[in-house]
Amino acid sequence: HQLITNPTGRKPGIQEAYVSIALVWLLAGLLSLPFLICSVLNQEPHKKLSLAVESFAGKAACMEKWPSDEQRLVYTTSLLLLQYCVPLLLIFVCYLRIYLRLRRSEEH
């Protein structure tokens, strides 16, 4: 995107790339904290299944236990927006800017 929309502009350096990667990992970790806090280890989670599978018998599983359904809904909706809608919008804007730049360069 940057090379097409601004080919002679400033290019990010290695240090900026490392900082960007660190910020992405930090944000991902922070977004996962509520899920980590609301997870509990259940020793018999498969007893509620209508079709019990022998290979799962006696196995523990990590389950979500939210204080309220409203908090679960807010967290899940926030994840949808931050991890799907915002990146999709960003990709759309980048492609639109590339398209407009290439179209403008064809006209000249």
Number of strand segments? 2
Helix-strand string: HHEEH
Mean pLDDT: 87
Q: Identify low-pLDDT runs.
A: none
Helix and strand composition category: mainly alpha
Bulk shape: elongated
Biggest sheet, open or closed, and with what strands and sense? 2 strands, antiparallel
CA distance, first residue to last residue: 20 Å
> Going across the major beta sheet, what is the strand order?
1-2
- With helices defined by DSSP (H or I, 4 residues minimum), what is the helix count? 3
- Which percent range describes the beta-strand content? 5-15%
Give the radius of gyration.
23 Å
Question: Helix amount, in percent?
Answer: 55-70%
Folded structure, characterized:
The protein has 108 residues and is mainly alpha-helical. The protein is 62% helix and 7% strand. The chain has helices spanning 2-5, 14-37, 69-107, and strands at 39-42, 61-64. The protein has a two-stranded antiparallel sheet. The longest helix has 39 residues, at 69-107. The chain starts with a helix and ends with a helix. The mean pLDDT is 87.
